[in-house]
UniProtKB/TrEMBL annotation:
Reaction it catalyzes: ATP + (deoxyribonucleotide)n-3'-hydroxyl + 5'-phospho-(deoxyribonucleotide)m = (deoxyribonucleotide)n+m + AMP + diphosphate
GO molecular function terms noted in the UniProt entry: ATP binding; DNA binding; DNA ligase (ATP) activity; exonuclease activity; metal ion binding; nucleotidyltransferase activity
The protein, known as: DNA ligase (ATP)
Uppermost EC category: ligase
Claim: Hydrolase is one of the keywords in the record: yes
Length: 326
């Protein structure tokens, strides 16, 4: 049958609901993967569409058997494709080796053998010829869980009703990306970033040493567009990424003066990173940055600047790098 195209409902960044409203919300682990809408026509086929609407089915051949999981029952489902590390946690860097292969099925099959993916399902919007968009979240979850969709490469993890503080604490203790809070009475709003879904990203903060910068463009001409930062490990300053957000206009101007005063022709990072257009500085400025996770090579993901740390010397800044970077 012809299934309706349904763009995914999106969550709004925020904080936990008030304690008095806790029982009105469900809590799901925020996954670090690729969002997909799954179309099951009921004829043994499966169609996966990315958030952009692009057909990415061929990129994930191990999910093809999902097409027969519901027999002849047509459905449209919402979920996330994950690549899991050796500890069973979602690793976006691993997943990147699988993304973008929708037009290279041969290569996709090869990568699937080395880096298999897992599909986590968390909503159903259309089932047996009927739209479920207007049903409250709690009813949709009942319908979804009733489908029994747990297979070799897909699953339907349970959502926790209430106990939001405990759920958020658990994601932090287990090093997970965060939490998604969903109001039990909320309808599914296709393509809408809704306050009925709230996402909370667990962010970490660490001290870093500034070793360089990239000139800004446009309104930032003459100012740093990003600073290049590192952390000390085994007696060397290892590059861990560029930070381009987090400053006010005044703070960026003050930082520009500090960077110009520390200019050097010698790159302080070992090994020297490949950063076109980089300007190097003597590594004496220490700052604190916030970030979500690290890549397997130790690079900071989604870093933003918090503050300068004039109370710390570069030698006092801490590092928590993967063993292969030390």
């Amino acid at each position: 049958m012809e299934l309706p195209l349904i763009p995914p409902m999106l969550a709004t960044p925020g904080t936990l609901p008030p304690a008095a409203q806790d029982a009105r919300w469900a809590y799901e682990t925020k996954q670090d993967g690729q969002r997909v809408i799954v179309y099951l026509p009921g004829d043994a086929r499966v169609l996966l569409r990315a958030r952009s609407g692009q057909d990415i089915t061929a990129a994930y051949p191990e999910l093809a058997p999902l097409g027969t999981a519901l027999g002849s029952t047509p459905a449209v489902l919402d979920g996330e494709v994950l690549a899991l590390d050796e500890r069973g946690r979602a690793d976006f860097q691993l997943l990147q080796s699988r993304m973008g292969l929708a037009h290279s099925p041969g290569l996709a099959a090869q990568r699937a053998a080395k880096v298999p993916v897992h599909l986590v399902l968390f909503d159903v919007m259309h089932l047996e010829g009927s739209s479920l968009l207007r049903l409250p979240y709690a009813r949709r979850r009942e319908r979804l869980e009733g489908l029994g969709l747990d297979g070799p490469a897909w699953s339907t993890p349970a959502a926790l009703v209430g106990h939001g503080e405990q759920a958020l604490r658990a994601t932090r203790e287990h090093g997970l990306e965060g939490l998604v809070c969903k109001r039990l009475d909320s309808a599914y709003e296709p393509g809408v970033r809704s306050r009925a879904w709230i996402k909370i990203r667990n962010m970490r903060s660490e001290d870093v040493v500034v070793g360089g910068w990239l000139p800004g463009k446009g309104r930032l001409t003459g100012l740093p567009g990003a600073v290049l930062v590192g952390q000390r490990a085994a007696g060397r300053l290892r590059y861990v990424g560029g930070v381009g957000t987090g400053w006010s206009e005044t703070e960026r101007t003050e930082l520009a003066a500090l960077l110009r005063a520390a200019t050097t022709d010698v790159c302080p990072f070992d090994p020297v990173p490949r950063v076109p257009g980089a300007r190097w500085v003597v590594p004496r400025l220490v700052g604190e940055v916030r970030y979500s996770t690290r890549t397997r090579e130790g690079m900071l993901r989604q870093p933003s600047w918090l503050r300068l740390r004039p109370d710390l010397t570069p030698e006092e800044s801490s590092a928590d790098l993967p063993d292969d970077m030390v």
